[in-house]
Amino acid sequence: MLKSSLTTGLSCVPRGRGQLGQESAGIVTSNGASPPTYTAHKGMGLVSSAFPPDALLKLRYGNLGICHTRYSTTGISELQNCQPFVVDTLHGKIAVAHNGELINAHALRKKVMRHGVGLSTSSDSELITQLLALTPPMEERDAPDWVARIKNLMTETPTSYSLLVMFKDVIYAVRDPYGNRPLCIGRIVPVSKLHSSGAEEEDTEGWVVSSESCSFQSIGAKYYREVLPGEIVQISKHGVKSLSVVPRPEGDLPAFCIFEYVYFARPDSIFEGQMVYTVRQRCGRQLAIEAPTDADVVSTVPESATPAALGYAQQSGLPYIEVLCKNRYVGRTFIQPNTRLRQLGVAKKFGALTDNFAGKRVVLIDDSIVRGNTISPIIKLLKDAGATEVHIRVASPPIRHPCYMGINIPTKEELIANKPEFQDIAGYIGAASVQYLTVEGLVSAVQEGISSLQQKDKSSKRVGHCTACLTGKYPVELEW
Amino acid sequence: MLKSSLTTGLSCVPRGRGQLGQESAGIVTSNGASPPTYTAHKGMGLVSSAFPPDALLKLRYGNLGICHTRYSTTGISELQNCQPFVVDTLHGKIAVAHNGELINAHALRKKVMRHGVGLSTSSDSELITQLLALTPPMEERDAPDWVARIKNLMTETPTSYSLLVMFKDVIYAVRDPYGNRPLCIGRIVPVSKLHSSGAEEEDTEGWVVSSESCSFQSIGAKYYREVLPGEIVQISKHGVKSLSVVPRPEGDLPAFCIFEYVYFARPDSIFEGQMVYTVRQRCGRQLAIEAPTDADVVSTVPESATPAALGYAQQSGLPYIEVLCKNRYVGRTFIQPNTRLRQLGVAKKFGALTDNFAGKRVVLIDDSIVRGNTISPIIKLLKDAGATEVHIRVASPPIRHPCYMGINIPTKEELIANKPEFQDIAGYIGAASVQYLTVEGLVSAVQEGISSLQQKDKSSKRVGHCTACLTGKYPVELEW
Amino acid sequence: MLKSSLTTGLSCVPRGRGQLGQESAGIVTSNGASPPTYTAHKGMGLVSSAFPPDALLKLRYGNLGICHTRYSTTGISELQNCQPFVVDTLHGKIAVAHNGELINAHALRKKVMRHGVGLSTSSDSELITQLLALTPPMEERDAPDWVARIKNLMTETPTSYSLLVMFKDVIYAVRDPYGNRPLCIGRIVPVSKLHSSGAEEEDTEGWVVSSESCSFQSIGAKYYREVLPGEIVQISKHGVKSLSVVPRPEGDLPAFCIFEYVYFARPDSIFEGQMVYTVRQRCGRQLAIEAPTDADVVSTVPESATPAALGYAQQSGLPYIEVLCKNRYVGRTFIQPNTRLRQLGVAKKFGALTDNFAGKRVVLIDDSIVRGNTISPIIKLLKDAGATEVHIRVASPPIRHPCYMGINIPTKEELIANKPEFQDIAGYIGAASVQYLTVEGLVSAVQEGISSLQQKDKSSKRVGHCTACLTGKYPVELEW
Amino acid sequence: MLKSSLTTGLSCVPRGRGQLGQESAGIVTSNGASPPTYTAHKGMGLVSSAFPPDALLKLRYGNLGICHTRYSTTGISELQNCQPFVVDTLHGKIAVAHNGELINAHALRKKVMRHGVGLSTSSDSELITQLLALTPPMEERDAPDWVARIKNLMTETPTSYSLLVMFKDVIYAVRDPYGNRPLCIGRIVPVSKLHSSGAEEEDTEGWVVSSESCSFQSIGAKYYREVLPGEIVQISKHGVKSLSVVPRPEGDLPAFCIFEYVYFARPDSIFEGQMVYTVRQRCGRQLAIEAPTDADVVSTVPESATPAALGYAQQSGLPYIEVLCKNRYVGRTFIQPNTRLRQLGVAKKFGALTDNFAGKRVVLIDDSIVRGNTISPIIKLLKDAGATEVHIRVASPPIRHPCYMGINIPTKEELIANKPEFQDIAGYIGAASVQYLTVEGLVSAVQEGISSLQQKDKSSKRVGHCTACLTGKYPVELEW
Question: How far apart are CA D278 and CA D299, in angstroms?
Fold first, then answer.
């Protein structure tokens, strides 16, 4: 998208199994001149509709830029809340894109407004941008020290954010001290150099930054490395340079969101040195150890649970088969008001591959059960088509708590694990049995790959993950 | 649009003959409760497309609100620049809608940014809103004195603005000390009371504020009065109350934009106590005195020049006829790159009523000639259809200077009056002769109606108008 | 639209005051080669939306073509019913465009279906096309004699149709023997020859055929002549050639639709040698003679009644003024379910030019009153704004009967003239008085111009018009 | 879609791996009354966009109907060519929906046009409809014998068609004597009766007919049986009744399109008693026998080749893994003009699951290679990500010949198997080796399941399939 001969940009991929469409997208480019010219476009919907050809045309000037795709968490979904957020300051425009949710946003808003600043949106991105502009006071004669301002911001808010800050011809890539949200760097190497190795200081061809590494391949870039928890990385025509690592409070572990592995990320993304697919497969193996089943075949709810299902099959020795084919022409399954319509909705979305399982006992692997509305008609579909028993094995623990760090989870009341029906979940959804992966099992499946990795790379000394939605243990104290 | 049983709102009408479609529209409503809930919607294009039914639905809560339709002057046309501008302050949200252009915007932006405020748009509305929030410093314990803040703003910027400022359950309607932009108040009286008279203090049914009075009729309101130059009017559940009149510097005259009469306003609007149509008719009469023609018939370029043409016919004694009919199915005449295409474009838009003028000498009245691109093919059309001579009489003086007060005028170079061709304008556009109304003639045609009016209403003691685009004399010194 | 160096095409203009938007449009072009290639495009809505740029691109091959814009009369409004209708025959494709309604369509459909032809639409155009293909039987060895087939068709159905039939490199322009629907020929002369005179046989540059001559000017063509009642005109690379005139039954007069003058046609169109505007102005004069008024001023419901109003003013000696200005930003006035909403709808569409008529007695001219829903709120608007009396004068007689010849008139029950309220129409609509033009007055206003014309052109010996919707006298016996 | 308490309808599913979106869809319903009312809607694009809610609303009257989704083969893709085709005859309307392509369409068109019928489209559906209406001659006094007319049609054209003919309250489901196109019957049983068994004559709740059985599940219907080659089945309020089986010429085998198994059909559809998925899995097993590979892992080009890949893995004993994940947010891969853009297009559509195969030799199964444009960048993607060797195994033979029976295959020149590059196909696409399934292998994989089936069901005595696109042997002689 950004055919740069020089520097960098951010590209966020649409995320989350259940989030069948992002809400808005924005891009801001800078020509890097002095003074720079910024060009911006924002739109609602998927990138393809948010960026019509004429919008892209106007963005092609400039060799650095940041962009953002958004699925609303706090801010109401309106174009106005679209990122990146750009403001004009005494020393020119800064643009900020942000992934996450500031845990102390309320107190910070008060602080900014006390200075007489009116906030025009409810988004954290504007708040971050105004905080960067506000402190210390700006003066006309001295160029602002953006790195000091970013560090200052990081001392005011511990989590949860991955940031891109663009000013003139520099982009700063920042991850909060707990590393709650992902952020990684990729490198665009010209075709002729694709197989050569080059050090960071050498003449480079372009850099990209993204929440997920899977987006690199689609623009011809290669995964380079993660931004570390608390790290500020500068990207400019001089290449990539690590400027600083803001530490966590003594004793605190990193808290990368474990649900990125379970649910949100694309399987080909890499976090902490391991491929998400591999982690999911390991969850399936662990699930087979924790919850073995007396059955004939193992299968998947396509497509997100397939790695876990293959892992379960390998570990258990049961044959892996397909029980459902997906109808590519059905878009979103809207939430239907009653059981019969939900049944028809699922029957439209999935076709039963009857002959593969008729007369057999099926273990069906799902990656998570949030509300419990979809799995029930799938089970009925399989039983109507001849499955003698359907056992559900879930490759993650039940979600029980809200997330205050940027993940859109249903309210506590809507979560199936908090409902009375959960006591007899198998009966409620019509399964022969239901079993979940334990929190310990999940954590070990995730961290096993990192340990093996740490032998090679000593950069992150200790390992830790945020499991707040499963355990209620938040990485920092909540203050409201 | 705002079925209020209590207070008020602003409604701007799309304006300007040449401005065949506004660019964006926004509306913000408040439920007036404590703390209030604001609801907002903004959209691009005409009101009808900017406000789909579901947008209107969400706005129906609340009994006061402000809205804005916009044809960009300074700010680039993007949804982000849409008004009203709403910001959250320590004491709740304020919403501001603005018509005009701050003559010292550049210096004011610097001032705000020096405080560390980042400005997210290039619009004056955001600037005004942040200025109101900024000075004096806001404190949590004391409610802000908005009237003092508005007065403070008015001392910092002399012109050009008409404002609506909404806070909780009050709207302030403000006009700059020079009265450069129009603003007037209308009253919604319930059907049963339509013919009763009521004092300002009495129990009222609803108030509306608008740039142009013509918008009142379409929502069932009656014209009440103008906001005076420099006046701050408060509209609340207690009705309409004049709070203050901020004076002009000693010796300065009011400077209401004379082109509102000539060109922008709808003919049924009322300014300074007189109907725009009547002023235009008077301009036509004055033109007949200044520039009589030896011809057979008088006609108009439909529809905006019709009042002037009828005035010219009455004064000159020549018969008024129609020479062109408009094709309602042709939308905008896009600017065509060459003479032949311009000719076909005009031929598609206007049909020649041949039999009305074949063999005759025609005086064709136009209200203004800005670029000179349209009148030329019209003259050719008439001559091809049999007119023996076509004399052009323009019911306003030539435009020669830029406007820095909110009116979108082509650059100096594009104005026909500044081109070498203007020396032989008749030859250039193919007319038998061309004559313009004088500046003195225009001013007297405008002020004649006010003088007669002043006998009844002594409120504005002296009369003056901004003729900067015609004379280069700006009401205040320009500072950049 | 059809930049032909050689031959011709049809262009229908959207028609009718009340028909605020055509429903569909189609165009078919032929490259005239042997065998020819036809290219077609049809779309719903106005021409501008029915023909996106890529559709026009594919049509540019070929130097002759026919097109059609449609406001449904009999056929349901679906794309399938769009004209021109093209069918493939043993000898290649023919394309037919049709304006009007076959008075004996029902019997003709039966006839065609008895031959085993299935009819895929309810449109007369398909019926005409299949009739042309069917009789006499087609043979592979002999080229079909299309002129004989057209004559044969004309003996089977007397009225109402104007037709364009395209086959390979020839277009036949046909008008039914009664001349009920209009059809005229225009000539595209290259710019350099615009003022030279050329005989029909000479080297020509292009020909166009249209229902209304007003469409010629917009494509740079000049009015040439009407197709006569019953005439078949051939248009080809050899120019325009009259092939035959099929006669009416002995004693029958021509029956050109008088409502084309009153209501449907654009004022700059020419029928029977006279401009529609002039006829409407004459109707206004006649109305002033038949229905004089004791009043102060004459005005119009803009814009269609303006010629009649000017005629009334000239004849009566009363001054002509404007009382209403139109809001160009309001599209269609939808039929509103109650009086209050109708009032607001009209108040949105028209602004009252109060100062022009306050305290005066107004004669308001309308061109016709069909349902009576619009005039009533206009009268109220004027009276609220200060008119002391509003007298309605209608420049055509009341419509009382259905049209079976292609004009879309409300059902008999919906026509105000057939309702009980018509007895006190003035009271019903709130007018001081209401008077209509008489049928005799209308006919004489129409035919007066033709008589004077006949001195020059002896081609149509006798004069007659269809007044069926006013009198119930249909030009031919109705058979169902 | 058709909530019928009584009879039936047709529902075609969008088909074909490469056909990522149908072009148009139409539906016609009949209320079954005497005379019946038909309601129709047709639209372009996917069913969801072709049928907006208001269109569905108008279709809900009636308890039988036929519909059609279309991917153009012969007729140009315009709304006019949309099926079902409805024509009015002397005895009322018939509606026809058609899947396939008449092998002698050209001669039949001539025949119809010789009768004087003009054909308004290039579609076979109109041709079929007019043929049904034409012979024998229709008379007003006698109701037409539609079954005789259908039989008559079947003697005039041997293949390829599956038809639905609706007349008043009856639908005839027809398959050509060679059974080239699929057609099967499903039954809607009320929820309460879902597990009861019922004979054909009994009281039934509803019947549906479809090209593919997979569509039944999504509307709550169960697979009932196939329509046999040459069979005419009547569906009415009396249920399903087999009326006749029109035989093939002595000695000819059935010729069901073998590519329905390979490529077009959804894997959960049932043809000739066997599930398509099972046949594809068998093709994979057969391929492993015919073309074994010395490699480490087996994988699939998701998703259509997955059953074959699983079959190959089971037969070969190599482990099945996933090498690619699909990006759900990328729609269609447009054909890109050069290698670099094709590479990026594939990289956007598929993510490489690097850790699963880095350092390994991969056997990649594809279901067919038509043009060879997609497989090449996929191989490059895998090798760049670390695969040491990529062996391609194709689960069907090379396509070499055009299809004249309704399947849209690229021209002979575009088929990779007919290009010189095919001599070194592995080198051309960058694979370590390439091997295809043999024709004999494919036929035996298909027919093996039918043989086993024939033990139970003796209805189709002999087995045969159309392999024309692979072998050039067409089921009937081609006449042009």
Answer: 18
